Amino acid sequence: MLGKDSHVEEELEKTEVIETARKIVKEGLGPICDNCIGRQFAKISSGLSNAKRGQILKEVLRTKWKGEEIEQGKCWVCNGLFENLDGWVLKALDALREYEFDSFLVGTKVSGMLLENEELIWEIAGASYAEPLKAELNREIGKRIERETGKTVDFERPDLVVLLNLWTEKVELQVNSCFIYGRYRKFERGIPQTRWLCRECRGRGCEKCNYTGKMYPESVEELISSSILAVFKGEYMVLHGCGREDIDARMLGSGRPFVVEIKEPKRRKLDLRMLEDKVREENAGKLEVTGLQYVKREMVAQIKNAKADKTYRVGVGLKTKVLKNDLENALNTLTGAVIEQRTPTRVLHRRADMVRRRKVHSAKLVSFDESVFFMEIKCDGGLYIKELVSGDGERTKPNLSELLGTDAEVKELDVMDVFYNCN
């Protein structure tokens, strides 16, 4: 007998187990390897590989049924798959060569023939104690890749998945995204947060968009991507913002929180301070990013669902002159007010028509002359400032135009702060 733990030996030598093993050998469609016979009893004993279980079972069969030969040759269940594990490991290592990663997981696309063979052996032996073929293959290949690379298997958040495609006999990689949190400051007006497709051609290119497919030549997303995507050797980048400012507004102050998602990166461990400098230098006068840090995928949902208060600096033009005292009284009335704001006319094409209630925490005068003034507004996130000023045909109440008794219009809009803490 092979040297083994006495408890394991007792479990595997039970009459029921040995009879089932003998049935597998006698009624199978040909030779069976140690892995495949041992795998049918994986749940009976722990602490052994399926190959070791198979060795023990075959030895017991030879001992109990002397004279009965166990057929040798290529396994009919796995078609010799477990004899070529090292070949699959070499394919995996070759595929991984260009990628920087700390953790991985192995998966398998099982071919139709192997699925049929597994169903056949389960018809012979039953599946009560069996482990699926791909579970064993994933584990055994994973252990070998761990030894070769020094990286660790991670069942929850692997950097990438090594996919063994038994149909094509190739190794495929599913590379998980890299996520980076930060804040951006946008110093030029006329730059949207993300790529804005042409309304006429929807990105195909037409005369109206000068065949670019875009309404605007650049975006915050594209500017950041052009600076960092190539460094990560990723396929493309997506920007997830904590809200968004109007295209004609600047984003100043501490900046707007965002998460960039780098799709299929080959590199993951970069100096983020260096990337901040790179974005600043390559987009001088337009854009900068600060506070970059690696985060997990969940941060995307946190950013997009955050209820962040905002501070705005607003330049307002008046149709008729007003007295400074009247203006200060109007701003005092807005301070602390809950604004009932029906979806603004200008965004009805992309927002549900509904009434939202948002609070103005403070409204104060910054500078003044009789027809133009600047004010600072602190308010709940989601309050449309342009409509707070204009009234939008009474869709926003109260509003500054109504309180002043003259038409008021936003001439300049800057977002000064977005109060959100990623921690």
Provide a compact summary of the structure:
The chain is α+β, with helices and mostly antiparallel strands. The protein has helices spanning 6-12, 15-27, 34-39, 50-64, 85-96, 112-125, 133-149, 220-232, 272-282, 298-305, 324-334, 385-390, 400-404; strands at 103-109, 152-153, 160-165, 170-175, 178-186, 236-241, 250-263, 287-295, 309-318, 338-342, 355-368, 372-379, 396-397, 408-419. It has four domains: 6-64, no CATH class; 81-174, VC0802-like (2-Layer Sandwich), CATH 3.30.2130; 178-305, Alpha-Beta Plaits, CATH 3.30.70.2510; 309-419, Alpha-Beta Plaits, CATH 3.30.70.
Q: Which CATH class of the largest domain applies here?
A: Alpha Beta
Q: Mean of residue pLDDT?
A: 92
**Percentage of residues assigned to helices:** 25-40%
**Largest sheet properties:** 10 strands, mixed
Q: Got a strand count?
A: 14
Q: In the residues, how many domains can be counted?
A: 4
- Structural shape: elongated
Description:
By secondary structure, this protein is α+β, with helices and mostly antiparallel strands. The protein folds into 4 domains: 6-64, no CATH class; 81-174, 2-Layer Sandwich (VC0802-like), CATH 3.30.2130; 178-305, Alpha-Beta Plaits, CATH 3.30.70.2510; 309-419, Alpha-Beta Plaits (2-Layer Sandwich), CATH 3.30.70. 33% of the residues lie in helices and 26% in strands. It is built from 13 helices and 14 strands. The chain has helices at residues 6-12, 15-27, 34-39, 50-64, 85-96, 112-125, 133-149, 220-232, 272-282, 298-305, 324-334, 385-390, 400-404, and strands at 103-109, 152-153, 160-165, 170-175, 178-186, 236-241, 250-263, 287-295, 309-318, 338-342, 355-368, 372-379, 396-397, 408-419. Strands 5, 6, 7, 8, 9, 10, 11, 12, 13 and 14 form a 10-stranded mixed beta sheet that branches. The chain has a 4-stranded mixed beta sheet with strand order 2-1-3-4. Strand 3 and strand 4 (170-175) form a beta hairpin. The chain starts with 5 loop residues before the first helix and ends with a strand. The mean pLDDT is 92.
